[in-house]
């Protein structure tokens, strides 16, 4: 029996969280389901646990790679998978009940959709919800207020997700034939290969969104060196798509540059470099006038003055 959906899970040293992710799949209310787990060079006995799981369930496929990265792992799994749809689930995330069923129903009722995603919640170390993703994105906060229904097709979808990458990978459901036709993730785009793929797909198909949080993500600390690499990768993606997005909605290009500058400013504040942060926040304000940019500028000015006084004394 052909599965309707293949769930792809890349995993590296996630034995402490992988069982919870798998358990959440069984709560989706989808009978024709296939799970493809890719162990990408784990050293924590994950592979032994995955193999044991395969012996217990005939709808689980286990693949093993040697630290090739999540983009390559997902692409490899997609070629092996056989579902009509592909759903991504990271080993340190989990789904709320019936998340998949709601997305499948939504996409079946709207065949023009090639991809859909949901809101998601951030959870702290005490398993407490701190916030949801859409609340921190101006565009999607407005969209959720505009639409009474839980699920909606995003107007100018490519421009919307270009303005800010709001999509959590573990919330995505995509048609497998479309994913393969577009060659999946570009492993040359480090750290933001997901955003690159969503934009590539959005330029070919309509995008659907479910505004309820149906996925949970544990908040992870990011190293400073990792942050700057991610920001450089974001610049690469913006340069790749901005000319195409301009023809759809020029404001989205300004919004993307503003978000990038704001992210650089945050990075420089964390490094205690308020002067550089100030320059970035001013650029963000020029690209997209918004009250929060003014607040950030005032914060940068205050920190710069404090640094000057401290230096003089």
How many helices?
12
Number-wise, the strands total: 10
Strand coverage percent: 15-25%
Order of helices and strands: EHEHEHEEHEEHEHEHHEHHHH
* Residues in helix, %: 40-55%
Low-confidence spans: pLDDT under 50, at least 5 residues? none
What structural class do the secondary elements suggest?
alpha/beta
* Average pLDDT: 92
What's the gist of this structure?
This protein is an alpha/beta fold. Helices cover 49% and strands 20% of the residues.
How would you portray this structure in words?
- The protein has 313 residues and is of the alpha/beta class.
- Helix content is 49%, strand content 20%.
- It is built from twelve helices and ten strands.
- Strands 1, 2, 3, 4, 5, 6, 7, 8, 9 and 10 form a ten-stranded mixed beta sheet that branches.
- Strand 6 and strand 7 form a beta hairpin.
- Helix 6 runs parallel beside helix 10 and helix 10 runs antiparallel to helix 11.
- The longest helix is centred in the last third of the chain and has 23 residues.
- The protein is globular.
- It starts with a strand and ends with a helix.
- The mean pLDDT is 92.
Tags for this model:
313 residues, alpha/beta, 10-stranded mixed beta sheet, 12 helices, 20% strand
């Amino acid at each position: 029996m052909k599965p309707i959906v293949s769930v792809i899970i890349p995993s590296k040293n996630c034995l402490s969280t992988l069982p919870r992710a798998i358990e959440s799949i069984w709560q989706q209310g989808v009978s024709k389901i296939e799970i493809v787990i890719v162990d990408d060079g784990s050293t924590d006995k994950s592979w032994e646990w995955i193999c044991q799981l395969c012996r217990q369930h005939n709808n689980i496929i286990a693949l093993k790679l040697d630290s090739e990265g999540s983009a390559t792992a997902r692409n490899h799994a997609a070629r092996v998978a056989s579902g009509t749809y592909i759903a991504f689930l990271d080993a340190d995330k989990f789904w709320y009940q019936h998340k998949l069923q709601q997305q499948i129903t939504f996409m079946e009722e709207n065949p023009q959709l090639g991809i859909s995603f949901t809101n998601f919640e951030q959870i702290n170390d005490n398993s407490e919800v701190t916030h949801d993703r859409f609340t921190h994105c101006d565009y999607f906060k407005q969209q959720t207020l505009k639409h009474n229904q839980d699920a909606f097709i995003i107007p100018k979808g490519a421009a919307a997700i270009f303005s800010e990458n709001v999509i959590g990978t573990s919330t995505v459901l995509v048609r497998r034939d479309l994913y393969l036709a577009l060659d999946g993730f570009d492993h040359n785009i480090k750290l933001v290969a997901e955003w690159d793929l969503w934009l590539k797909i959005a330029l070919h198909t309509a995008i659907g969104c479910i505004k309820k949080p149906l996925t949970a993500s544990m908040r992870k600390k990011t190293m400073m060196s990792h942050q700057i690499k991610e920001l450089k990768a974001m610049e690469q993606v913006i340069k790749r798509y901005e000319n195409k997005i301009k023809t759809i909605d020029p404001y989205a290009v300004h919004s993307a540059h503003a978000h990038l500058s704001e992210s650089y400013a945050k990075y420089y504040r964390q490094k205690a470099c308020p002067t550089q942060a100030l320059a970035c926040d001013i650029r963000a304000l020029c690209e997209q006038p918004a009250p929060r940019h003014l607040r950030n500028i005032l914060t940068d000015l205050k920190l710069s003055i404090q640094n000057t006084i401290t230096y003089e004394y």
